[in-house]
Amino acid sequence: MAFEKQRQRLAGVVGIPVTPFTAAGDVDAETYGRLVERLVLSGVEVVTPNGNTGEFYALEEQETRQCLEVTTKAAREASVLAGVGHDVRTAVKAAKHARASGADMVMIHQPAHPYVSRAGWIDYHRAIANEVPELGVVLYVRNPAIEGADLAHLAEVAPNVLGVKYAVPDPVRFRTVARDAGYERFVWIAGLAELSAPGYFAVGATGFTSGLVNVAPQISLDLFRRLRNRDFDGAMEVWDRIRPFEEMRAAHGNANNVSVVKDALSQLGLCRPDVRPPSRLLTAAERDQLFEILSSWGLS
């Protein structure tokens, strides 16, 4: 089967690194490389530069290129799944740069457009995937209107599409789409991170994405191993440990999704807590709450 190594690795923890900034507000390439290396040395086999935890939509084009290049150098033997998006031409240019830089896959962000037709959704992804046939392609699906039949059609016209990061908060919908698309055709990734992973694994997911893995990689990997082994009781024990952290990220409509991860890394001395608008820094009370969580994990 084509892209077999990539398919096997996507059925695991897909790490989404943060993008650290310097005091001047630029991308801190040296720290970025250390954070990626830390993920890989912990056992993470897929790293996604320019994902949402990496503040993709707050980065300039040159900065996304820089993040991708740093990642491919620091990732060692791990697979690099480069986030691309925006308009078709921009996404294609980014995908070709990812190929030239040594990435072996790209993840296409959900089209940021107020008017998305199902046929247009297929055309958008086909146009990008067909320009980089040597790369595996992962779809980032957040739109509940996308049907399994749409994915099946896309698979016919873009054979290098191999994975689906499904981020619609509805396990029943996920199961329905996966079965209608052809369950074995794609690698199905729970795209809403650790708290949603058990529900999605119960209905067919084989991997999940993670921002938490930046902070506590062994906890995320432990959860994955338990889910893979169908140890749901054990998985829910890990889930209970993770829950306060992930609930902080999800509060206020995910307003602090990235801020919590970066502040935790800051408290561990790994990078600055800075985020770009429209995200914000944590308040003193939130930082104290986060410190207690890290302490409960034995990390502070």
| Helix content class | 40-55%
Number of helical stretches of at least 4 residues: 12
Q: Termini, distance in Å?
A: 45 Å
Poorly predicted runs: none
- Beta percentage is 5-15%
- Overall pLDDT: 97
- Which sequence of SSEs, written as H and E, runs from N to C? HEHEHEHEHEHEHEHEHHHH
Biggest sheet layout = 8 strands, parallel, barrel
3D shape: globular
Radius of gyration: 18 Å
Structural class: alpha/beta
* Biggest sheet strand line-up: 1-2-3-4-5-6-7-8
Count of strand segments: 8
InterPro entries: Aldolase_TIM, DapA-like
Protein name: Dihydrodipicolinate synthase family protein
Family: Belongs to the DapA family.
Keywords: Lyase
Provide the descriptors you would attach to this structure in a database record.
300 residues, alpha/beta, globular, Dihydrodipicolinate synthase family protein, lyase, DapA-like, Aldolase_TIM
Give a concise summary.
The chain has 300 residues and is of the alpha/beta class.
Plain-language structure description:
With 300 residues, this protein is an alpha/beta fold. The chain is built from 12 helices and 8 strands. It has helices at residues 4-10, 29-42, 61-74, 88-101, 118-129, 148-157, 171-181, 193-202, 217-228, 232-254, 257-267, 284-296; strands at 13-15, 46-47, 79-84, 105-108, 136-141, 161-166, 187-190, 207-210. The chain has an 8-stranded parallel β-barrel, surrounded by 7 helices. Helix 7 (171-181) links the parallel strand 6 and strand 7 (187-190). It is globular and about 50 Å long.
